[in-house]
Amino acid sequence: MGTVTRVRPKSRSERDSVKELADEAVVLRTYKSGESDRVCVLWTRHYGKLRVLAKGVRKTSSRMGGSLEPMGHVKVDLVKGRGDLYITKNVTHLERMTNLRGDYARIAAGLAVVEVIDAIPTDEAADEGIFEMLVRVLLTLDNTEFHPELVAASFFFKLLAYDGSEPVVEYCVNCESRGPLVAFNAEVGGTLCVDCRSGTAISPEALQLIRRILGGDLASVLREDNPPGSGEVMALAHEAIEAHFGKRLKVTRSTAPLAPNVEPPRT
């Protein structure tokens, strides 16, 4: 989950004019349609978020069913249907991600990631940079070299930075004092000093961990097993991404590994 450069995305009009397309995609979520069909919400590399109807995919004889599951990294061949709906012609796996799918904590983190991507407004144009970040974070979760607990939280902070909303963590966001910084408030954009504090208390360990995540040391952070401040960082990342989108996220609030007991800050 390193630095990603923005590229010019296809506009909505360019996307809607396409009658057939082949693209790389990640499955964000699915829901049933009719007796044997399924609607899949995809984030594609070149066309952004698409809704796709997979006909007959819930039949036991379907060869596409196993490919169109949340967090699936696939290649899709689609034809334009009615409205904004596309119809699947063919789907093939690009990455199986067996380690991710075989571990509860990795699954939980992956579901939190795709839920956040799904929260991006549908009227925005495609963004290849976001697609690359999404694939990279799923591959990170599939890599057993990295511990999964901080992957989703790190992704949330990286996504905020990519969108131009990186939280301030080097000085007080209110008075620009260098510290000591004792609180974090997502609503005002980052850390606060003793005189300006509001929001949630933050320990020096958690503050240093966020600085490492945003400052280029993410791979080392993810190789560490439960570094000091992890619980705080997870909670603060969820708070920050929810404030950014203005909505509560279901997975991050209902899944045990993503709703940790926050470690009390040291005084």
Helix content: 25-40%
SS class: alpha+beta
Largest sheet: 5 strands, mixed, barrel
Mean pLDDT: 85
Briefly summarize what is shown:
The chain is an alpha+beta fold and 267 residues long.
Describe what you observe in this structure.
The chain is α+β, with helices and mostly antiparallel strands and 267 residues long. The protein has two domains: 1-144, Nucleic acid-binding proteins (OB fold (Dihydrolipoamide Acetyltransferase, E2P), Beta Barrel), CATH 2.40.50; 165-267, no CATH class. Helices cover 33% and strands 22% of the residues. The protein contains nine helices and eight strands. It has helices at residues 12-16, 98-101, 104-118, 128-142, 151-162, 204-214, 218-223, 230-245, 250-254; strands spanning 20-33, 37-44, 48-54, 73-80, 85-95, 181-185, 190-193, 200-201. The strands form two sheets. The protein has a five-stranded mixed barrel. It has a three-stranded antiparallel sheet with strand order 7-6-8, with no helix packed on it. The longest helix is centred in the C-terminal third of the chain and has 16 residues, at 230-245. The model is unreliable at 4-8 and 256-267 (pLDDT under 50).
